[in-house]
Specification:
Length: 286
């Protein structure tokens, strides 16, 4: 939904004449509005050096060449498979513990403010009113204040852990997380919340922009530590909805990929207001 990705194959000159296979990534339109491409490449190279993803083989002005991973990309149903979900949890903990060089400050609130300004600059006044972009700054500030001062675990987060960014070797069950364009340091609970939200999506259905929130996980736990984490994740789901709602608005104006970004954004914002009411009611009851 952001880039175009191709598999390139050609025969080698060896005796067995096996084909060489690489992945060619063409950057999507307007991606510079979401992240710094040089930061993305530095992250990609660092993860690669430490064995966490494909190798970077080459670069050109609007894309790059990567090592082709011989593994299966997960499907929407895989995210709700208990066995696969347990493997993802283990891998995500490893990801959060990765000591990525550079600043380790939380990025989520700065990203939300920057994307809100960008979305407003691209929207018509009617669109801005429809999506409440003027009042959204207050929502972002309120969310930030809600989490400030807490003892949260901060780690290097993927921030876009949808099923298309996870690959698994069917034989070894080794799992690889790919595509670090939105990766940064953030609360680990936010990364998990974002992953839970992605369980509502099936980007290979007839209507890939339509989300089914009945598939969002929500089981209670008896363990106090786990229960506290679940509550934190629930609140960070709000931030996830705002992030990808704003992403949808911006993408609608800059990307030509065949995807209904505006309707996707509308669903994320609707879930934000529904979820916010539920969470506020629950907190009041406590």
């Amino acid at each position: 939904m952001t880039n175009e990705v191709y598999q390139a194959r050609w025969p080698t000159s060896g005796e067995e004449r096996e084909a060489r296979t690489v992945l060619v990534r063409l950057y999507g339109e307007g991606v510079e509005l979401f992240f710094d491409r040089e930061d993305d490449v530095r992250t990609f190279e660092c993860m690669s050096r430490h064995g966490h993803g494909p190798r970077l083989l080459g670069r050109f002005p609007n894309g790059r060449v990567e090592e082709f991973i011989h593994a299966r990309t997960l499907s929407a149903a895989d995210l709700r498979d208990p066995e696969i979900s347990a493997i993802i949890a283990t891998k995500l903990r490893e990801f959060h513990n990765f000591d990525m060089p550079g600043p380790k400050s939380v990025l989520i609130w700065k990203r939300l403010r920057n994307w809100r300004k960008t979305a407003k600059s691209l929207c018509s006044s009617d669109e801005a009113k429809e999506f409440c972009l003027d009042s959204m700054e207050e929502e972002i500030t309120a969310l930030g204040n809600e989490f400030s001062g807490g003892r949260e675990r901060i780690g290097f987060c993927h921030n876009d852990l949808q099923y298309g960014n996870i690959m698994i070797d069917e034989e070894t069950k080794l799992l690889t997380i790919i595509d670090y364009e939105y990766a940064s340091f953030n609360p680990a609970a936010y990364d998990i919340a974002n992953h839970f939200c992605e369980m509502s999506a099936d980007y290979h259905s007839e209507k890939p922009h339509v989300l089914d929130y009945t598939k969002y996980p929500g089981e209670e736990s008896d363990a106090e530590e786990v229960e506290n984490l679940i509550k934190s994740i629930e609140k960070y789901t709000l931030a996830s909805h705002l992030v990808w709602g704003l992403w949808g608005i911006i993408s609608e104006h800059v990307n030509d990929i065949d995807f209904d970004y505006k309707e996707y954004a509308r669903q994320r914002f609707e879930q934000y207001w529904l979820k916010k009411t539920t969470i506020v009611t629950a907190q009041t009851a406590e």
